[in-house]
Amino acid sequence: MTESLLSIAFQKKAAAVAVFHGLRIEYLDVHHASATGTKAVQSVYQFLSRTIVAFSCTSVGAELVANDRTGRALLFEGVLARLRDDGIPVFTFSQTEILPAFSIPPLRTIAELRALGLSLMPMLTDSASQETIDAALIGLLMQVDREIRSIFNLDHSRTPNARTP
Question: What is the pTM of this model?
Fold first, then answer.
C-alpha cells in the first residue's frame, strides 16, 4: 500500500505543504500565521495536524532549518517537536542533501532547483509560490527514495530524525 506523506517548507510566519500519495501530489497549500512565537507555532501545528488527519499522512518531510533563533527556525523547531511528540515520523533534509539529489552534476542554487521542480511538476507553474514548490520538491525527493527502495528491495525506511541538531 502506498503511503501518504506531508512535506513542509517553513518560512518566518508560514508553512507551505504538499501532500503526496505515492508520486502524485494530492494537495498544496500555504498557511500564514498572523502571530509570532508560540502562537505561530500553535497555529501552524493545528493546520498541519488537520492536514495530516484529512489525508491520512503517515510521515512528514521537511527541509532542515538552521538553529539560528530566527522566526523560521523557531517555527520549524516548535512545530516539528510537537509532531514528534504526537508520534509522527519526521524526516529532515539539509540543502546539501537536497541540491545534489535532483541532478548530475549537482545543482548549486535553490533557484536552479525550483526551475527543475517546475519542469518536473508543471502543474505547479500557474499557482504555486516558491514555498509550495519547495514543499513539493521535498515530498518528491522522499517519495522517489521510497519507490526506489521498494523496487530494489532495499531497506524500506530511512530513519526519522529524532531531534533537530
Answer: 0.87
Q: What percent of the chain has pLDDT over 70?
A: 93
Instruction: Report which of 4, 5, 15, 72 is spatially closest to residue 46, judged by C-alpha positions.
Output: 15
CATH number for the domain that contains residue 53: 3.30.420.10
**Exposure string for 81-95, b = 16+ CB within 10 A, e = fewer:** ebbbeeebbbbbbee
Residues pairing with 9 in the sheet = 16
Q: Is residue 160 part of a domain?
A: no
Residue type, 124: L
User: Contact, 116 vs 40, CB < 8 A?
Assistant: no
Closest CA to 18 of 147, 150, 127: 127
Q: For residue 94, what is its C-alpha cell?
A: 539539509
> For 44-93, how does the pLDDT look when each residue is reduced to its tens digit (9 = 90+)?
999 999 999 999 999 999 999 988 888 899 999 999 999 999 999 999 99
Q: Write down how long the chain is.
A: 165
Which residues span the domain enclosing 19?
4-151
Number of domains composing the chain: 1
Query: What's the rounded mean pLDDT across residues 101-129?
Result: 91
